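Hi everyone, sorry if this is the wrong subforum. Our group has a chain we'd like a structural model of before ordering constructs, and none of us has done structure prediction before. Sequence below.
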Amino acid sequence: MGDFMQAGDSQRVEFVDADLRGARFVRADLSGMVMRSVQVGGAEIDSPWLLEGDDVLLVNGVDVTPFVDAELNRRFPGRAERRAADPEGLRAAWAALERAWGGTLERAAGMPAGSVDVSVDGEWSFAQTLRHLVMATDVWLRRAILGVEQPFHPIGQPNAEYETDGNDMSVFATVTPSYDEVLAVRAERVGMVREFLEGVTVEELATVRSHPWAPEYPETTLSCLHTILEEEWEHHRYAVRDLDTIEGR
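Answer:
Right subforum, don't worry. Here is the predicted structure as tokens:
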């Protein structure tokens, strides 16, 4: 296996001549990781935060983040509009997103029965992804922007760390809902965002809001909407990826 070393009390670990083929890292912090003289053929990295801030990902000395961003925009028409900063641009961005999801929902409807409940490599199923987006809308629109005290629909799917972070799981259903129920609530939440954007003003976009998870870090209406759009496009990417896998089996 080679050598595994940890430098004193620091977090730095070092693998020398180690065989990590097929290793899987989930919800792991690999920021600042350095790999030298490594075999990476077939390696796969999925980092939804890769394009946030000034982070870089260097491959043979080349920052590949701009290429990743451009390629995702090519694959998913409308994604490039997710950072729109004015009411008209946001409405156009949401309309593009609805078109993208509309096509994907039609694709899922045409697949064999039960496909929407299939988990690929332990990831959320298509139905669970839609349920998570219900929760994302509840967090960032209903709670953060609209100030609803208990914003969650029971059908929502919380993220993996929700309970371990000390949050109340009792608001969520313990019985798996039918796919038709999921579609109905999802459509309702999509309509809520559309309706909000129809009347939003420039002044309202600049209004300061409380961060739903960390009140010490204030947000604005615009940044909350950007978070919703990011969540939507990232999970759309996951959904398409997994539908491709299911169809290929």
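For your construct planning: The helical segments are 65-75, 87-109, 126-143, 179-199, 202-205, 221-248. The chain has a mean pLDDT of 92.
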